[in-house]
Design brief:
- With 283 residues, the protein is of the alpha+beta class.
- The chain has two domains: 149 residues, Fructose-1,6-Bisphosphatase, subunit A, domain 1 (Fructose-1,6-Bisphosphatase, Chain A, domain 1), CATH 3.30.540.10; 109 residues, D-Maltodextrin-Binding Protein, domain 2, CATH 3.40.190.
- Helices cover 30% and strands 27% of the residues.
- The protein is built from eight helices and 14 strands.
- The chain has a seven-stranded mixed beta sheet with strand order 3-4-5-6-7-8-9, with helices on both faces. A three-stranded antiparallel beta sheet has the order 12-14-13, with helices on one face. A two-stranded antiparallel sheet has the order 1-2.
- The relative contact order is 0.14.
Amino acid sequence: MHSPTTQELALAHTDALKDIVLQAGKEILQVYNTEFAVQTKQDESPLTQADLAAHQVIVAGLQQLTPGIPIISEESELPAFSERSQWQRYWLVDPLDGTKEFVSRNGEFTVNIALIEDNAPALGWVGVPVQGRLFFGNALAGEAWVEDSTGRRPLRGKARQPDDEKLTVVASRNHGGQRLEDYLAAITEQFPSTTRIPVGSSLKLCTLASGEADIYPRLGPTSEWDIGAAQAVLCAAGGRVFCADGESLGYNQKENILNPEFIAVADGQFPWAQVLPKLPSTD
């Protein structure tokens, strides 16, 4: 059976993929609006019935739409690297990113579907069920948009000027730590007019793509499925995600799928390495 090309998925099959994200969101909200139970995963992060319900909807939908494209989901067993290292492209899914936001009922959790091609996010869909928003990014074509009850509008990250002393930083609601605080303090010394916005889940990268912030430093652990879809949205909107060595964050290149520390920025053309302080030592 023919598998759609990446461009066909971005164009001809966008509505089908949007429907998968929206249906997964409906399943999540059915649980969200009840007195749901919370389990604990092996890594001690919370797991609810909503994760599993959304996972089942997404996997079934993707298998029907693209039976020839493999799927990696947070809620399924990770294939061996010897197998997945041979994949040119695959679906990377986080059925419910921001489970802590879900459990605390602040609404900042997302449904994430990314198509990874040649070790980089090519397409990404990020649904925000409580807010009724859907983000999409085609990193190959440089096209990103957000859709809600008011319609669809294009996304573009905020362009930065060399002499701009203002900086808006997106920070996690639940994952901080002293190294991050030290780094944010160093940023504030560099940019005295620094504003800090707390945001949950993969919405942090979507906030950059929307032009609402400049930078998101992540010095804590994440997995590839946590940000794959949102990275596609951000890159499509003109942003970038890079590691401490300045190289772009890549995917499916090692046995585990833990990300190194990274910095996400709204303006991918700005010379951030020249103005940002060095990351604090891990010693």
